[in-house]
Amino acid sequence: MPDSYRVQVFVDFWNYTLGMRSVAPKFKTDWKALPKILTREAGNLVDSGALAIYQGMNVYGAYNKTTEKSLHRWATNTLDTFPGVNVHFKPRTKKKSYPTCPSCHKATKLCSQCGTDMRGTEEKGIDTRIATDLVSLAWEQAYDVAVLVSSDQDFVPAAEYLQNKGIKVVHAGIANKGMLLKQKCWGAFDLPKFKADFQLK
Fold this sequence. Notes:
six-stranded parallel beta sheet, 31% helix
């Protein structure tokens, strides 16, 4: 067994944030402490006798250019300056199609109450970027253990592929969310159990 493992963290920002809010509505994350706790728990899971080395943390998300400018500023000017952190935030894009009535199938362009465009927005390309980085960084031998912080089932193929190549993917999730992804990862732990260790004081 190796004496140490390099741990790379991959965080799906909104999946993580909304998941933690579902457990603790007023919870605020200490983003400097979070990767250390994730590295510690992944190391304990893989081999408690070996040294788990924090290699870096990639954080992926999307923002609304009109209403979430402050979020984007914080992500790029604060979060991205923390040790080992790389932030990948993209503006949300308008959905191409309008929602349709399930009965008559007519498209609804505007809300009948307030007149807002009914298309909403989407985080186009975020999941693809996470999956691509998981695989490409493993290919470059940049890490030994990946910690995936998301419950999104879209990452199942990437997790399965890496498992088949001998790369350990550890799922840091929330109980009863993302069960299929949890099953396909090498190991898993329940993130809220350790929330006191990465809660902003």
